[in-house]
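Our preliminary data section would be incomplete without showing what the modeling component actually yields. Below, a chain of 329 amino acids is followed by its predicted structure, encoded as tokens that our downstream tools consume directly.
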Amino acid sequence: MKTLAAITAVGGYAPEFVLSNKDLEKMVDTNDQWVRERTGIEERRILKGDRATSDMAVEAIKNLLSKTDYGPEDIELVICATVSPDHVYPATANIISDKIGAKNAWSFDMNAACSGFLYALQTGAKFVESGTHQRVLVVGADRMSMHVDYEDRNTCILFGDGAGAVLLEPDTDGHGVLDAEMRVDGSGREYLLQKSGGSKYPTTLDTVRNKEHFIYQDGRTVFKHAVKGMADITCEVMEQNGLTAEDIAYLVPHQANKRIIDATAKRAGLPDEKVMVNIQRYGNTTCATIPLCLWEWEDKLKRGDKLMLTAFGGGFAWGAIYLKWAYGE
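Predicted structure:
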């Protein structure tokens, strides 16, 4: 049988500090009811001190490895999906590999905004399917709080910090990544971006004063495209694999907005009990949302469960992955 890339372990990490909607009421012109109704978010986690994205990723990987018989030296490749790297360079994945002691691994970062984890998972799967790699770590981690303007009520309510990781290994019993579709539309870049800090708009005193290093989002436009993008791509992958709502054990959507999640589930015909949602506790952790869901639902997943993963992010970049879960009672 064809070799597939199966998820054989998951790990997650969320910082201890909780920033609730009530806390935000003291910082910006908003209120708890307004935030809950429009986003589904009640609180989010914030990384404090001089810790960085790599530190959260390390904690998620430690959690993952503790469930396996492997050590860091057994990992052959580390892919880190992030939009909040420790540095512009080197890659945060390189730093993660050093911190965990993955001395036999090579590594690189991937940036596809909120769809980064899906892009990284599909990329990692190809290394396993090709037969060149036996154990690949895919990490989604973001310290979004460093890119949030806490005077901007349109964006500061949305984002939190966190990390999640999965281990990919070969499987010849039909479990693993079975299909995927990815899309991009670069014309959407003007609606969701961090304007400055790159080669187009290098960092200057003026870009800092103008708050161009924080997240900018045209909420209405992004919402419209996200609802259509996530719903369309999810249904497309289901249809091309002959799947119905009854076949799917869980939809695992990017946790950007509860209304987007609900619209995607409705379009796919999936009831609430088949949708992983933890946005109320973590907010939008960008590249970490999907692996954090898998981490929290790990005990509920059974070998053979069919999952649909889907995300939409800035750029625009979106996609969906259909996989069959490889372990569990």
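The chain has two domains: 4-174, 178-324. The CA atoms of residues 24 and 39 lie 14 Å apart. Preliminary results of this kind motivate Aim 1 of the renewal.
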